[in-house]
Amino acid sequence: MHILVVEDEQLLGKSLSRGLTEAGHECTWTRSGEKGLEYAKTQQYDAILLDLMLPGIGGLEVVRALREEGIGTPLLILTALGSVDDRVQGLDHGADDYMVKPFAFPELLARLNAMWRRASPRPALSYEAGPLALDLGSRKVTRNNKEIDLSPSEFSILELLMRHAGQIVSRKMLNEHLWGQDWNGMTNVIDVHINHLRQKVDRGFDEPLIHTVRGRGYVLRTS
Q: How far is the C-alpha of 115 from the C-alpha of 213, rounded, in Å?
């Protein structure tokens, strides 16, 4: 699953990101309710973990805004508030489940899986750019009908490049898409992922699709 984590506590956010990744999931983490709302509206996630007590836009406001816009991504609230009224309020706003901190990580994984199984199936989205095709439902990438095996990070980067095919995608955009945190200047991390992705997508073909725009970012371009 691709899971969006909206949690302002630094240690817990890092712990959740690490644990979910080690469990085989792709994780995007942000500490801001505003950013969480933006990501949930503009990107596709399989589940959302949302802290209730956030600075700025609170968790309940995020839930309400998403549901009012018809975004039905399964959503689990994490909070230190454990009263019955608090739980009822979260569920009434549209959350699918509720866990009180502190919690056991294996139980969180079990609840995420159960929540995903209960969710109504959604139509798979796909992108095509020349000979390249990407399917978000099956997480399958092909070039000239030949399947390409990508890591979760490589898949996410290619998704953004294909969504903006023909347009320059900056390193900052790639960083926020991949990790959901403010740009930290580690340009080499993105460069390494792009290099691996380019080897897999362009190797063995006469026409390269992924191009570097010096000082600006990258672009996926087909003739």
A: 42
Q: Of 109, 113, 202, give the one whose Cα is nearest residue 150.
A: 202
Tell me the residue type at 188.
N
**CA angle at residue 36 from 169 to 18, to 5 degrees?**
85
* Sequence-separated (6 or more) residues with CB below 8 Å from residue 215: none
Q: Evaluate whether 48 touches 40 at the Cβ level (below 8 Å).
A: yes
Eight-state DSSP code of residue 124: P
Task: Give me the phi and psi of 51, to 5 degrees please.
Answer: -70, 140
**For each successive 10 residues of the chain (223 residues), what is the average pLDDT?**
91 93 89 92 89 87 90 88 72 85 90 77 74 91 94 90 88 75 60 92 91 90 84
